[in-house]
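Table 4 source record.
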Amino acid sequence: MPLILISGYPSSGKTYRSNQLLDFFNAKIKAATESHISRLNVLLINDQTLGLSKDVYREARPEKDARAAEYSAIKRALGRDTMVIADGLNYIKGFRYQLYCEAKAVQTPSCVVHVGTPVDKCKEINAELLSDRDPPEGYPEDIFDNLVYRYEEPNGMTRWDSPLFTVPYDDAMPPCEEIWNSLIGTEGELKKVKPNAATVMKTAPGSDYLYELDKITQEVMTAVIAWQKDHVGEFGGQVPIGDTTVELPVSSVTLPQLQRIRRQFISLNRQHNLAKSRIHGSFVEYLNSNFA
């Protein structure tokens, strides 16, 4: 069932908004007369339910492990009768893309709720949480500043961040009814999403599938690196590769960045058994989504 992805600055009120949505969804389900609605349950997943401390965001390795824990919990929970509210920073667009793909793979809709509290207000709230609670519930100042700096705001123009609902700080409630209708529908008919070739799970990949996945993604990565070597000092630009185009960001793309994105793509598609003809285009599309 639907995935509601919460995103926002640290101490922006994401858990408060998530609980408002949780209460609203539970009330709608309780009042429903349709059996396919009344059997639904709502699950909230966040750092607290996963037993994660805010200190995990201080260093790259524990933060990566924390994201993996959230990803695994969401993937396990996505199912026929469960609405999942993923209450977290969810500040990396590549991570949001992965969760979008997981939702699409089980043919369920998803949306992003951006808690739009201004950074100055978040800083004020965080200071209060550090000073007024025992033990402190806010983020240490260095972690707070680092997370704000790295935050990649959702963009409703991209399919993995849409539909996008932004909740201003002064609004008493999120647009709960609109969110419900975008996921469930106005007629109470559960919406289903048609999976694309990149998210359909197939059995028994061909013996050469992993070889082709590795080879083709390496060829694309090599072409990008070669283009950058031939255009030293240029930032951004379009790299034509066959009948596709890689849209480079304004800043230069390093080899470690490309290797990381490639590893993510291979991990995501290891069991999907893409047709050989689609691997190239899907990887270029994944690169562009990370560069956007």
